[in-house]
Amino acid sequence: MLFPFFSLISCLVVRIAAVPTPSATVEHDHVHNVHRALPGSWYHDQDHPVHELFKRAPPGDGTTYADVAWSAGFPQSSPDPNALPAAWVSALNAAVAAGSIPNIPQSTNTPGVNPVYPSGVNPNGPQVCSATYKCRIPGDIWDSPNGVFASSFDDGPTPSTPTLVNFLSSVNQTTTHFMIGINVIYYPNQFLTAFNAGHDIAVHTWTHPYMTTLSNLQVVGQLGWTMQMIHNSTGGRVPKYWRPPYGDSDTRVSAIAKEVFGLQTVVWNQDTSDWNGTPQSIGTALTGFLASPKSPGLIILEHELTDITVNAFIAAYPQIKSTGWNFSSLASVVGDGRTYQNAQNSASNDVQPDSILVGAASSAVNSSSTIASSTSTGSTAGVTSSGASSAAASGSSNTKSSAALPIISSFTSAHITLLIACVTGALVLSS
Ligand SMILES: *[C@@H]1O[C@H](CO)[C@@H](O)[C@H](O)[C@H]1NC(C)=O
Ligand SMILES: *[C@@H]1O[C@H](CO)[C@@H](O)[C@H](O)[C@H]1NC(C)=O
Ligand SMILES: *[C@@H]1O[C@H](CO)[C@@H](O)[C@H](O)[C@H]1NC(C)=O
Ligand SMILES: *[C@@H]1O[C@H](CO)[C@@H](O)[C@H](O)[C@H]1NC(C)=O
Ligand SMILES: [Zn+2]
Q: What residues does the ion ligand 5 have nearby, CB within 5 Å?
């Protein structure tokens, strides 16, 4: 009697925690015989347009940053493609004019189903090469160097982020966090916990959409605002890596990321399905991956969604060592070692001042610390990427005092929908 009841509850808990993620139908990539040389260097030269995009007036320009509405300048929902910074639009237009952005159709999808392209368009062909269909675009990252467990976690920051960070601190390690931009508004303290511990911060879009379904301008908004938020909250660092939600990218989206923002696309070569898993299933998956050959190295899809997903990783951590893998933060091992485009890492003092927002960024961090005390108390367990999308739909206001409320109220409907879906098994849960 207890077991079905527990299953229902755990199902519900996971569902609440992972509203956008249940449609993660990107299947595993178990291919181990694909070898591709990883780029030794990727970040853009100083004359690349990306370095113009985040410039502002020099420090001491008189700008002040309101504690109350430090996030007011950022989208409170899906970014409006008609209200983007002009520099981003110009950079996109220049890249399109230069022929750098493939002119391929957008995909369409209904939640829970892989995106599809118009008939006649081959998602596995070189024109589209959709990562959802496991087509690997040259230059995108799917594997890590031999023998390396290239660690990363998606969908943060969340209330479970400190659990992960504190554990890794205890073993003197860091990881790469592919963060959802709007989640930083809701969990600034948790964001800072990761950044201040020296962890690498990367981009997982603003509201976690299927990126290939979006227009070019929408893609720019999803990436640009997340970069801007990370930039303003990390002392001016410009992220270097992004991971598409659901692993959904194609030649067009990948090119926008690279040509407009200098971002390199990172997918994965193993998937624990932790967002949908039990401690047992996640542990079994990890054990299997750790027992597999060490070429190529591992890039495992993991999430910092809940204590379930984080604790499953923590439980498996000793096996990483005992099976001889070299655990490393992904961003520090898949390229030249620099984890940002304009800085060595989160702890370095070498942020290049000619391409970034120096003074303001530290203010933003301090403001974030202030706001956290008011927002974090309003959080419910597992408000994560779902918070992003449900807050996005709720039209929340810009003030910090109301920031937590839209999550909770909009959770009710999401919660009910997902409970029904969970109980009836109606959700598509492939892979
Ligand atoms: C792990 O790193 C150490 C030191 O860099 C190296 O000697 C060892 O060969 C690596 N192990 C694997 C499995 O790559
Ligand atoms: C922690 O890791 C760093 C970087 O790998 C290393 O330099 C340092 O010696 C380590 N400290 C301990 C206590 O293991
Ligand atoms: C980011 O910080 C810069 C100052 O460095 C500021 O001008 C800008 O308004 C901030 N962006 C947002 C969206 O708040
Ligand atoms: C931010 O906080 C640090 C330490 O808490 C402080 O030294 C610094 O002056 C603060 N910066 C601003 C702009 O308030
Ligand atoms: Zn995600």
A: 154-155, 245
Q: Residue 158: name the closest of 391, 376, 349 by CA.
A: 376
Q: What spacing in Å lies between the alpha carbon of 287 and ligand 1's midpoint?
A: 20
Q: Which residue's CA is the closest to the ligand 1 atom numbered 9?
A: 147
Q: Choose the residue to mutate in 326, 327, 328, 332 for probing ligand 1, maximizing ligand atoms within 8 Å of C-beta.
A: 326
CB 51 within 8 A of CB 231: no
Residues forming a β-bridge with 286: none
* Cα 224 to middle of ligand 3, angstroms: 13
Q: In one letter, which amino acid is 217? A: L
Write the DSSP symbol of residue 28.
P
pLDDT string in tens for the chain (431-residue length): 333 333 333 333 333 333 333 333 333 332 222 222 223 333 344 455 455 445 433 333 343 333 334 788 899 999 999 999 888 998 999 999 999 999 999 999 988 789 999 999 999 999 999 999 999 999 999 999 999 999 999 999 999 999 999 999 999 999 999 999 999 999 999 999 999 999 999 999 999 999 999 999 999 999 999 999 999 899 889 999 999 999 999 999 999 999 999 999 999 999 999 998 999 999 999 999 999 999 999 999 999 999 999 999 999 999 999 999 999 999 999 999 999 999 999 999 998 853 432 223 333 333 333 333 333 322 322 223 333 333 222 222 222 222 222 222 233 333 333 333 333 333 333 33
Distance 58 CA to ligand 5 centre (A): 35
| Domains (range + CATH), the chain | 144-336 (3.20.20.370)
Contacting residues for 155 by C-beta, under 8 A, at least 6 apart: 18, 21, 178, 179, 180, 183, 204, 208, 275, 303, 304, 305, 384, 385
Overall pTM > 0.85: no
